[in-house]
Amino acid sequence: MVHWTDKERSAVRAVWEKVDVDQIGSEALARVLIVYPWTERYFGCFGDLFTATAILNNPKVAAHGKVVLKALEGAVKNMDNIKGAYAALSRMHCETLKVDPDNFKLLADCITITVACKLKGALSPQTQATWQKFLSVVVEAMGSQYS
Ligand code: HNI
Question: Residue 124 above 90 pLDDT?
Fold first, then answer.
């Protein structure tokens, strides 16, 4: 089981409190689709994803980005059992959506970059380290039901 110090718990909470879920979610998902274009294959019903501009202005990308980031709240609130909190979501991504689990890390990196663009100097290297530790546990949990 992952061990969290009190300092790490409060660092994760502090970043989360500064995150505007709607904005960061939309921007992070758009970033994944632009930087790693092969991820578009999972979003065939989202309409026009042909250019970066189209992705950035696509309302379905924006809406889904919010849904994904809102799901992170479950991890922030269950830091001692992220795997349990994400078991059903992991199974769904594996069995129904058939998302390659390598993509979870790509999304996590895009979330960190989007958060960093917003927080700027407020995201110290130490806070970034803790935030990335947190997201790596999320990535592992999202991959936990793949066999
Ligand atoms: Ni993901 C649906 C959370 C990574 C492709 N995804 C969801 C839903 C949540 C969610 C919540 C909605 C579930 C429901 O309807 O019951 N996704 C997460 C989280 C991560 C993640 C927390 C990683 C941190 N998803 C990814 C990645 C991809 C992905 C990396 C593909 C590259 N997700 C999808 C697709 C759907 C989806 C596709 C269904 C979308 C739709 O509306 O049809």
Answer: yes
